[in-house]
Each structure stands twice: as C-alpha cells, then as structure tokens.
Amino acid sequence: MKTTSEAAFETAIESVLLAGGYARVAAQGFDRERALFPDEALAFIRATLIVAAVTGQVSLQEMRA
C-alpha cells in the first residue's frame, strides 16, 4: 500500500485546478483575518458587476450603492 501525505494531496489538487484554468496566487497577499485574497476578490467582483451591468442584470445606479 502506498503511503500518502497531506502535501501530496495538496499538490494533486493544485495540479488539477491549474490544469483547469485556475491561476496560482502568491501566499503573501492572503488576508488571514478575512480569509481571502483581497486583490483577487475585488477583481472578481468588479468583473462580474461589469458583466451584470452590460447584460442588464444590475443598473449602474445599483452598482454605485
């Protein structure tokens, strides 16, 4: 039987995610208090709000609120 480790498990998960289009992010940007990467979170929010506004799912006035 093969011996497994948490490090090997993490490496396997990371490989699948990277192959699926995810990008590696430097750990230094992680905000432990909020448990997220602020720059990545804000980029996602901005990108999805723009799509929502263009498709009419949300108004620019709602975006500013």
Automatic annotation (TrEMBL):
Top-rank taxon, per record: Bacteria
Protein name: Uncharacterized protein
Species this protein is from: Thauera phenylacetica B4P
Source species taxonomy: Bacteria, Pseudomonadati, Pseudomonadota, Betaproteobacteria, Rhodocyclales
